[in-house]
Amino acid sequence: MSVLTLRLAGPLQSWGVGSRHNIRTTLPYPSKSGIVGLLAAACGIPRDGSPSDTTNVTLADLAALRLAVRADQPGELLVDYHTVSGASHAPAEPAQQRLPTADDGRLQAKDSTKITRRHYLSDATFTAYLEGDLDLLTTVAHAVRRPRFPLFLGRRSCPPSKPLFLGIEHQTDLDHALRTTPWQTTGHAIARHHAQGQVSSVRLDTVTEDPTGTDVLPDQPLASAPPFRHQYTERPIRHGHITLPLSPHDTAHDPFDLLG
What we know:
Elements: E1 2-13, E2 23-24, H1 32-43, H2 59-63, E3 66-73, E4 76-85, E5 113-132, H3 134-145, E6 165-169, H4 174-180, H5 187-195, E7 201-209, E8 215-221, E9 232-245
Parallel strand pairs: 2-5
Antiparallel strand pairs: 1-5, 1-6, 3-5, 3-7, 4-5, 7-9, 8-9
C-alpha cells in the first residue's frame, strides 16, 4: 500500500461530528468526513455525490481510504458568538422566518434572531495520512495541488494557510508514515519548545483508523446515501502517541511566525 500525506494548517479549523443547530462543536483533530469532503472538493465531486467531470475518482473511492491523523500543533479552542436572523433560513417563505415560541405561537420577524456558538481550533496544525492504492492517491494528490473547488479545513470560513500536499510514500503503512514525517509546526513553536528545555524530542498525539481499535467515531461517510442527504456510520479508531527526535537547531523559517 501507499500513503498520501497532507498538512492541515490554518488560522482556524473546525471538524464537527453530528454538530448542528445552535451549538456547533469541533473534534480536537480532523474528522474523516471533513477530510473526505476536502478531497472531494479537490477532485471536483459535487455536493450531491455525482461523478466528477474532471477525474474518475468517486466519493466511494475516497471514503474507502484508511486515515490516520497526527496533532503536530493542537491549537487552542475558540468559541465564536453568533446571532443569526430567522430570515436566513427561509428567505422566500415569510411565515418560516418567525421563530416558534413555547405556547405554539410565532415571534415577530424582527425578534426572530437565534444565538449560536461555533467552536474552532485556533492556530492548529495536523498531518493527515491516507492509505490506499497508489494510482488513486496519485490522482488525489494532483487534485489537491490543483483543486477544482475551493478547499476548507472543516468549514467554509476556514481556508488553509499553507500548501496541503506533503508527499506520497510507496510500500509503507500508516504507522510508518506517522513516525517518519518531520514535525510540521512553526519555527516560533519549535523555539518555544526548546526554551522549555525539551530539546531532544517531541511527543505528538495520533488517531489511527484500525479494525481492532477500542474507540469509534461516527464520521465514516456512506457513499450510497441519497443526494444532499449525507449519512455517516461508525469507524473503529485507536488513540496513541509518537515521539519524534529533534535536533537542538531544528528550526524553520515561517513568515507567519510572529502570529504564533
